[in-house]
Amino acid sequence: MSSRPRPLLPWFAVVLAACAAPGAGARQADELASALHELCATPALHGGRIGVHVVDSGSGATLLEHAARSGFATASNLKLVSAAVALTTLGPGFRFTTALHARGHIDAGVLHGDLVIVGGGDPSFGAGGDAIVFVPWLAALRQRGVQRVTGRVVGDDAFLGSEHLGLGWQWDYLDESYAAPFGGLCFGDNLARYRVELVGDAVRVQAVPPSDEPALVEVRTVPVGSEADLVAQRELGGERVVVRGRIPVDAKPRVVTVTVRDPAAHAAAALQAALRAAGIVVEGAAPTLGAATTLLVEHSSPPLGELLVPVLRDSDNLHAEQLLRVAARRKTGDGGTAAAERHAKAALVGLGVDVTGMVLADGSGLSRRNLVQPQQLTTLLSAIERHPDGAVFVAALPLAGRSGTLRNRMVDGPAAGSVRAKTGFISRVVCLSGFVPLVDPTARPWVFSVMLNDFTADDSEAKAAVDRFVQRLAAAARG
Predict the structure, then answer these.
(1) Using H for helix, E for strand and C for coil, what is the string for 242-294?
(2) C-alpha closest to that of 312 among 86, 9, 120
(3) CB contact burial 202-220 (16+ within 10 A = b; e otherwise)
(4) Spatial separation of the C-alpha atoms in residues 94 and 75, rounded to whole Å
(5) Residue 190 to residues 294, 305, 374, 388, Cα–Cα distance (Å)
(6) Interatomic CA distance for residues 224 and 203, integer angstroms
(7) Among 369, 348, 349, 351, which residue's Cα sits nearest to residue 360?
(8) CA gap 429, 454 in Å, rounded
(9) Is there a contact between 112 and 150 (Cβ–Cβ < 8 Å)?
(10) Which domains does the chain have, with CATH numbers?
(11) What would the DSSP string read from start to end of 430-472?
(12) DSSP letter assigned to residue 391
């Protein structure tokens, strides 16, 4: 049986687009068209959808396009939107604040009332679960002579409303560290941490910081030289955490994580553990209604310009969710998903992006409901590169073969150490969008977006196909 020939129309259309592009010479146009043809003909991508847009940001000329105005699931390429919206709305110097209030009155070393943590949406508060963030708070309590609290430690996350999960997030990854819930008050990346160690022949699992709700332990020991395989999981829709797996009898202590159910309660529990360790007693009595509230101390985050690094370089989902929603809250008074989408689209229109057909279901790209076109991303990147604060944005992107989520991709070749781009990956989705510098360091770069959806090959094959294409872009940009 003979194989049916592939359609020639996409290749023919690509050649015409490339040859017509005024921003590239004839040889460059041929190389670009050949690179796109190779990408579209990749056997591993057959049956999937491929979107490509390449623009000369200096002239504004389109160099390549293929399904560039079709909507694609974005994966973490959506973080380009979240970061740009936050940067242009809040500015690179913006700092999040998290405050400690006393609700009640202090008399003779006793706070008659509650301690209340009021969140301002800071995703970096207590990063890594480090209680050192509470040291200034403990000092502030000591200065006021507080040794006992009759009430409770309360977390107030009202700043961003009641939502904690993105629209369309999947049930089967909700306890994974990359799917931590968002909210007005965060602590320790909104992850619960459990230390697993051997004490004699017994396995001991302890929450860090200590918790009144111990985990169920299903861990067995295995011989010296075996591999450890430990995981913390939370029953779907429940509160109980199970730590299960195996640990070698000679293993050093390990820490496993699982997402929390209630970020505000998690932050409050962490502070209460710090208070207990400092000798301050929290009795937990019912609050006094109508008690006056006094600000005790505030914590300020690093500036937003620094927080773009975990969003873009490291692809941190919680940071991306918080930045998009806080930008909307600060601008419109509403940090919910619907308001965040409305504000983001308004900000993008202000940058010259046509948002027709765009759907923003979350701020991180975990949701498959997101739909963004390749040409929308290239328009955004071209605009942000020209923005007065654009250098902060560009510098926060991973550098091919050198940093972040691109550290182990394109480690040599023309793209290595030159291309800056945002990765994106969820099952059946691989995207990469960013900048290709030209030989002239004063010239504005080429901007590209490659979006792959619905392929059935291994994800590594899809990423390799994208990397080959970007390597050829980088070679062509050198003339």
Answers:
(1) EEEEEEECCCCCEEEEEECCCHHHHHHHHHHHHHHHCCCEECCCCCCCCCCEE
(2) 86
(3) ebebebbbebeeebebebe
(4) 27
(5) 26, 22, 32, 33
(6) 15
(7) 369
(8) 7
(9) yes
(10) 9-92+304-477 (3.40.710.10), 96-301 (no CATH)
(11) EEEEEEE--SSTTSPPEEEEEEEES--S-HHHHHHHHHHHHHH
(12) H
Q: How far is CA 221 from the centre of its chain?
A: 35
Instruction: Give the pLDDT mean for 181-193.
Output: 97
| pLDDT value, residue 19 | 38
The residues near 169 (Cβ < 8 Å, ≥ 6 apart) are 179, 362, 366, 367
Per-residue burial over 291-311, b if 16 or more Cβ lie within 10 Å, else e, is eeeeebbebebebbbebbbbb
Between helix 26-40 and helix 9-20 the angle, nearest 10°, is 150
Q: CB 108: neighbour CB atoms within 10 A?
A: 8
pLDDT band at 23 (very low <50, low <70, confident <90, very high): low
Q: What are phi and psi of 400, to 5 degrees?
A: -55, 130
Q: What is the dihedral of CA 264, 161, 304, 90, to 10 degrees?
A: -160
The values of phi and psi at residue 181, to 5°, are -65, 150
Greater model confidence, 174 or 19: 174
User: Quick check: 378 and 385 in contact, CB under 8 A?
Assistant: no
How far from chain centre, in Å, is Cα 454? 22
pLDDT for position 11: 43
> For residue range 24-81, what is the model confidence (pLDDT) as tens digits?
678 899 999 999 999 999 999 999 999 999 999 999 999 999 999 999 999 999 999 9
Strand 229-234 relative to strand 241-248, pairing: antiparallel
The DSSP output letter for 372 is: B
The distance in angstroms from the start CA to the end CA of the chain is 44
